[in-house]
Amino acid sequence: MKGLMYVNKDFPRILTLLREERGLSQKKAAEALGISQPLLSHYEKGIRECGLEFVVRAADLYDVSCDYLLGRSAERRPSRQMPETIIRTEHEESFAPSRHTRTGIINAMNKKLVMQSLHIIFDILDRIDNIGLSTEISSYLSSAVYIVFRLIYSSNPRNSQNMFSQAEHIYKGKLHAVQTVCESNAENIAFGLPIEEYKSVDRADRPELSPERLETDYPEQAGSLFSLIQNTEQRITKTHF
User: Fold this and answer.
1) Local structure of residue 101 (DSSP, 8 states)
2) CA dihedral 177, 178, 183, 189 (to 10 degrees)
3) 195: which strand partners?
4) How far apart are CA 87 and CA 57, in angstroms?
């Protein structure tokens, strides 16, 4: 499986040099970065890939731009001109950030991970060709977008709630219930159990997938999906109930 798209062979070397320039031990640097010393050692040796959040924390700690840390720029400080950190392919929209900020770079990278991962998901759904499965998965994803957008929109109390018909104090619980039902329906359909008017997916139509197959079928998008999976599983590992 490929590593994160934005990390290259220069990143471990630069990360190590910056720490040594500050005269920090791995233990002290790891404490400042909020990770364990063994994990920082793996990052510096290039054994493991890191997430976007770590890149931002390291850039802040060493007072350099993310592009410098990633070996994409010789300039240590962010410049007014946004470097071409994201390459546009023939059939992609531009993922270049609109703001000249470190957050803009992170947003552009996350946008790329999500959109290219969705490209793979919907292409696989096209090949499966099951209306029920596509409907339930699309409803689940649409609910997630609704929740996120309404959260951002409602953070400013001056924004009118007139565009929403569902009351603010009840929509979250209902939408989480909707997502649970959509996920359950999609799982049943995918595993061969029909749901109401929807037929289940025939065994012969269930896709044969592997990291190698994904890389072959989606050479431009697979890396983003792998990165999204890795980032999400890192968040799961760090979450304690």
Assistant:
1) S
2) 130
3) 198
4) 24
For 143, how many CA atoms within 13 A lie in the half-sphere containing its CB?
Answer: 19
**Which two three-digit tokens encode residue 102?**
């470190």
Q: What is the location of CATH 1.10.260.40 in the chain?
A: 10-69
Least confident of 20-29, 94-103, 199-208, 222-231: 94-103
Is residue 198 helix, strand or coil? strand
What is the rounded (10 degree) CA torsion for 20, 23, 27, 33? -80
* R_g (Cα) of the chain, nearest Å: 21
Residue 119 contacts residue 218 (beta carbons within 8 Å) = yes
Looking at the DSSP assignment, which residues form a beta bridge with residue 198? 195
- CATH class (in words) of the domain with range 10-69: mainly alpha
Alpha helical stretches, state H, 87-221: 102-128, 131-154, 171-190, 211-217
Compute CA 39 distance to the chain's CA centroid, rounded to the nearest angstrom: 21
H/E element holding 210? Answer: none
Pair 71, 11: CB distance under 8 Å: yes
Q: In a 3-state reduction of DSSP, which class is residue 239?
A: coil
Per-residue pLDDT of 83-125, as tens digits, reads 333 334 434 444 454 445 556 667 777 888 899 999 999 999 9
* Whole-prediction pTM: 0.63
**HSE on the CB side for 34, CA within 13 Å?**
11
